[in-house]
Amino acid sequence: MDFGENILRQRLEHDEVYLFLLDNVPVGTLTIQWSDPDVWGDCSDDGLAGYIHGMGISRTVGGKRVDESMLEWAVRRIVNSGKRFARLDAQASNASLCRYYKYRGFCALGTRLLGGDFLTRLFEKEIIPVNS
After folding, report:
1. Is the CB of residue 71 less than 8 Å from the CB of residue 93?
2. How is domain 3-126 classified at the CATH fold level?
């Protein structure tokens, strides 16, 4: 089993994997985890956050803001679960993606080296429950 297949299998078995449809056609996916020690270390066990991973959209919906809708949906899912933070990460060298997350209200918290050679940038967004 290759690395990508292993990650997908792990997510399907242990996390919340979502498929987004537009006019009954799959256009995107993302995963929400409730702990992420591989990327976030010990702070992932603080119980304060949900972790967004594996977000991807079809090129066929480019420019339709599907990515924004998916990200907003994931943040609402996390806040509705009683969490205070939405966290995600991106390859540190992907400047446009890192800018995108900042534009969407996520604060960069630094970087973390994964697997000895993969530098990822950590992002966090504080979310306030609607009932607060």
Report:
1. no
2. Aminopeptidase (3.40.630)
